[in-house]
Amino acid sequence: MAKFTKKKSGELPAVNTASLPDIVFMLLFFFMVATVMRQNTLMIQNQLPFADQVEKLDKKDLVMYIYAGKPSPRYQQKFGTEARIQLNDKFADVSDVQKFIYAERESKREELIPYLTTALKVDVETNMGLVSDIKQELRKAEALKINYTTRIGEVGKN
Amino acid sequence: MAKRAAPEVNAGSMADIAFLLLIFFLVTTTIETDRGISRKLPPIPEENIEPPIIKQKNIFTVIVNRDNQLLVEDELMQLPNLRQAAVEFLDNGGGIGEEACDYCQGPRDPGSSDNPEKAIISLVNDRKTEYRTYISVQNELVAAYNQLRNREAQRLYGMDFLEMESRYNDPSFRGDKETLKERIDVVQAMYPQKLSEAEPKN
Q1: Quick check: keyword ATP-binding in the entry (chain B) (predicted)?
Q2: What are the φ/ψ torsions at residue A4 (nearest 5 degrees)?
């Protein structure tokens, strides 16, 4: 065994790992910056339907989100099981949609307002009555560009 | 108390901590954009404007009832057949003389639409219709338009219409955007998307 221990000078020196934390921290910061946390806490069930004729919705800052669906189980005691609209972090009525659009417009730069799109994230089980009411309110507020947010897949999966 | 030098903190486990955080953010990151069917709502019409008179044969009515069943042109239809039916209607080209459509490849049935510019798809929902059916129907109707536009774009320019659109919207595309826009407009004018939605009944 002595033969092995003596051979020390011929071995490769260990790779210096002192900068490993720096590299890892760099990656960490990249992912921390790139991560987009969900803006709104969903209070409704939100299973989106499937579709395949979809377009991308780029420029997240130009999108207003309207959610609709049945309240989640833990809110059902208070709000019932009838489908509701959610704007920002609160349940809302159909009449609040216009106010919401105006408030969103107020917060954007003026030259960007014509490019604003409304994304409707509606649960599959919602009745069209509610969706039509939302659409009617959007027409009144002249927010005519809409996008039905979907998952990608065959419609047969719906 | 005698002053003692504080022992150096062992930083050997820093890498482990950083790795832990890194893995957490790696797992939670979703770099994805939302996708969906884009539509434009019609503006609220001004008062006392007479709606234009449209020939019945140029309207393709799709009615969805509260049980999510489809009634297309007064016949019960299953969803997978809707796309083909819509394509046949839009591409019919039954018009004669001035209203003739020289690029249509449909059956030229005089009882169906005159030309794609006049053809209107009318979608009527019930308030109790489920959203999933509505999206499926929308998707199929948009697919019918896209299918026809793709065909014409292939014939004229050797490229899919959707491909043209995605290139046009791609900011890093280095080609000639002006011609591309013109071509998109030409194909869009051949099959304009005329999808009318009535307010739901009941």
Answers
A1: no
A2: -75, -45
Q: B100 at the A interface (CB within 8 A)? A: no
Among B14, B34, B138, the strongest candidate for a mutation testing the A interface, having the largest count of A CBs within 10 A, is: B34
**ipTM of the complex model:** 0.74
Q: How many CB pairs under 8 A join A and B?
A: 150
Report yes or no: A117 at the B interface, CB cutoff 8 Å.
yes
pLDDT tens profile A46-104:
888 898 888 887 777 788 889 999 998 888 888 888 888 988 888 888 889 899 999 98
Q: Is A144 exposed, middle or buried (0-12, 13-18, 19+ CB in 10 A)?
A: middle
Residue B39 belongs to a domain: no
Task: Note whether A29 contacts B: Cβ–Cβ < 8 A.
Answer: no
Nearest to B193 by CA among B50, B37, B45: B37
Tell me the CATH architecture of domain A50-157: 2-Layer Sandwich (3.30)
